C-alpha cells in the first residue's frame, strides 16, 4: 500500500493521489457494445442465444427461467441461507419503507392546491452480475425497493452458468422479493434486451444494477437514446475510504480494507489517519490477514494501487474524503458520529468500530447499489424513489385563478408568450374579471 | 389539426398516432457538439469568446456578469414585473420546501441504527435559454430549489444578446433567487464550460435546464463522460395533452392548446375527448384564436402535426394519455379529480377548468422543468431532491453486531467473499462471540 503524507503534497499531487484509474470510454468498447445492441434490436431472441453461447458459453433453450427451475433452486438451497435471505429482505424493506417518498399537498395561495403524487415506474429491469461469484445480495437490493414502489412488472436478468442455469440463491432471492420474471442473460446483451425488448424479454422503462465495463457502457448507451431506457446511475469499480484515529483497532481496520479489496483487482481502498503509528500497524495487519484469504491474490492486486494517507487532523481527514467522494466511508474514530456533519459526499457511511462495511452490503437495511468513481458528488444510491415518478398536480378554483392569474399574465407577457397570457385572461373574463 | 378515431385504429396505427417526431441523435449534431466540447476543454475562455462571437454574434469582454450589470438590469425593469417575479418565487419556494426530502432514521434491529441524511450538491450549473424570447421563469424554476437545497455555489449561464448583455429579467431573477454567479454563455459551449470548467467558469457537479438540440446533445455527452457532470434529465420539445369532455369550455381548451403550440414549431399538442362535438368546436375555436396571436405562425406549424383524438370514454382517454406520457396533462372534465388516480405517467397535471397550464409554467408553485418525449414514463420533474445527495448512514453497537452479524456472515459466505465475512467475525470474536 502506497504511503502518502497529505501535507507535503502540492495541489496537483493531491489530485493525483486521489485519482481513480481512468474510466474513459474506450472507442473499441463503445463500438463493440453498439454492435451488440444493434444485433439484439435486429434479431431479438436469436441474437440473445447466439451471444450467450459466445460470451457465457451456454446453450440457452428457453431464455426465461421457468417454475420448475425456481422450485429446484429453492429445494437445493441450504435452509440457513434461505433464512438469511429472508432476514436481510425484512430489514432492507423496513429501512426502505421508512425512507420512501410520501405524497405532499399544500395551498400556495387561497384556492390554489399544489400536490405531489407518486406512481411506480411501470416496467423495471434489474441486472444481477455473476462474474467471479453470483450476487444474491444485489437481487435483494434491487428487488426490495421495486416491490415497495409497486412496479407493475419487475424483470431480472442474470447470466447463466455453462450448464444453462442461473444461480440458485439468485433465483430464490428473486422469488422472495417479488421479482416477476427472470431471464438467463448477462452482459451488454441483457441490457439491450431489457431496453428495447425482444420476443421473450419485455421492454423496460428503467434499468438498474451494477456490472462490468460492457454492462456499464451498454447502460450509458441506452440511457442516451431517446428510444432506449433510463438507468439508475453509471457504475465503476467498488471502493472504500476509512478514516481511523490512533485508538482504532488495526485488526478491524485491516479487515474492512480487505473486504473491499477482495471485490476485484480494480477495487479502490484508502485509509486516512492522523496517526502514523496506526497507518504502520494497519499496513502490517493487512499483509497478515491477506495471506489467509481465498481471494488474497485479487486483494493483493487492489492493494497495490491503494493508499495510506497521513493527515494532520480528523477534520482534514474528512476534507480528503469529501474530495474523493467515496462509495463507502467508514469512520473508526472516537466519537465517530461527530464527524458525520462534515461529510458532504459519500454513498453510504459506516459509523464506529462495530459497523463493518459488510453489514451494509447485506443486511443492515441500507442499499448497497451506490455511486462510485466520485459520482457521490452528484448521485445518490438506489432507493424506493429510484423506482417512482413524482408527478406534480395543481388545482385552482375561481378564487385561486383570481389570486395568481395576474402574476401569471405579467410573466407571460415578459416572455412574449401571448397565448400563455390569454389562457388566463379568457378564464378571468368568464369570471367577470378583466386584467 | 389531424382528426383520429382511436377505436378504428390497429395497434400499430395507435403507436404511430402517438409518435413524437424522431429525436434520434444525428451523427452531424453529435460530432459538432463533440468538437465544441473539445475546443472548450482545450482552450477555455478563449474558445468561449470565439464561439459566442460565432453563434451568439456578440463580442464578450468579461464572460461573467458584474455587479454594475445586475444593478442596471434591476433599475431598468418594470416594478410590476419585479413584483411578479418575487411573488412567483415565494409560491415556488413554498411548494418546493413542502416537497423537499426529510432526514430519516429507524432501528432495523436492536442496536442497528440506519439513517438517511441529506447534503446539497456542492456546485450546480443552471442553463436558461434565450432563443426566441428570454425565459426568466426558467431561472426561477432552477434557482429556487437550488437555494432551498443549500448548494454552495449556484452558477447560471444564459446567452448574451448581440449587445453583449444578458436579459434584464433573467439577471434580476437570478439575484432574487440566490444564484451566485451568472455567465453570458449559451449553447453547447455553456454546457461544456460548466461541466469541465474554464479560467472564468467553475466546474459544476450537476447541470440543469432545458435547451435546444445542441444544448441537449451537450448535456447527454457530458453526463456520459465519467469526468463530466451529472444532468437533471434529457429534454425534448414541450408538449401538452388535454382530456376534455362534452361539457368543457371550448374557449378554454383552445387557449390551452395554443399556449403550448406557441412554444415552437416542434411543440406537441394533443386533445383527447369522447365527444365528437367538442373536438369540432375546439378545432374551430383554435383557428379563431390562433389568428389573433403574435406567434400565430409558430403555433400554426405546431398545430399542423397535432392531433384531435376521439375515444369511447374518459377511462380510455386516460389510457391514451398514459401511453403517450405527456409533459403536461390538463383534465378539463366534470369531476376532473376522479381521473387523477388513473394517471400513471405525466410530468405535471392540471385539474379542472380553472387551472390553465400557464399557471404551472410560472407561479402555482410546481416546477416547470419536466420530462418530455415520453420520459415521464421513468423521469420526474426538477425538485429540491434533484439538488441533493441522499447519503445512508448505519451505526451498530455491540448488540447490533451480535444481532445481524450472523446473517451478514452467511450471505458473505454464499457469495464466496471471505474477507466480508471476516470483517464481522473478527469483531464478534473481540466481543467474545464465535460463529
Looking at this protein, list some descriptive labels:
homodimer, 435 residues, Rossmann fold, 3 domains, six-stranded parallel beta sheet, five-stranded parallel beta sheet, 14 strands
Protein architecture, described:
The structure is a homodimer of 435-residue chains. Chain A has 435 residues and is of the alpha/beta class. The first copy, chain A, folds into 3 domains: 2-21 and 236-365, Rossmann fold; 27-99 and 119-231, Nitrogenase molybdenum iron protein domain (Rossmann fold), CATH 3.40.50.1980; 397-430, no CATH class. In chain A, 44% of the residues lie in helices and 16% in strands. Chain A has helices at residues 11-17, 27-43, 45-55, 67-76, 79-98, 136-149, 168-176, 187-196, 213-223, 250-261, 276-290, 296-304, 314-324, 357-362, 398-414, 418-430, and strands spanning 2-5, 104-109, 112-120, 123-127, 153-157, 181-183, 206-208, 230-231, 239-244, 268-273, 307-310, 328-332, 348-351, 388-396. In chain A, α5 crosses α6, α8 (187-196) packs parallel to α9 (213-223) and α10 crosses α11. Chain A is globular, with a radius of gyration of 26 Å. Chains A and B meet through α5, β2, β3, α10 and β13 of A and α5, β2, β3, α10 and β13 of B.
Q: How does the SSE layout of this entry go?
A:
Two copies of one chain form a homodimer.
Chain A: E1 2-5, H1 11-17, H2 27-43, H3 45-55, H4 67-76, H5 79-98, E2 104-109, E3 112-120, E4 123-127, H6 136-149, E5 153-157, H7 168-176, E6 181-183, H8 187-196, E7 206-208, H9 213-223, E8 230-231, E9 239-244, H10 250-261, E10 268-273, H11 276-290, H12 296-304, E11 307-310, H13 314-324, E12 328-332, E13 348-351, H14 357-362, E14 388-396, H15 398-414, H16 418-430
Helix pairs in contact in A: 2-3, 2-8, 2-9, 3-8, 4-7, 5-6, 5-7, 6-7, 8-9, 10-11, 10-12, 15-16
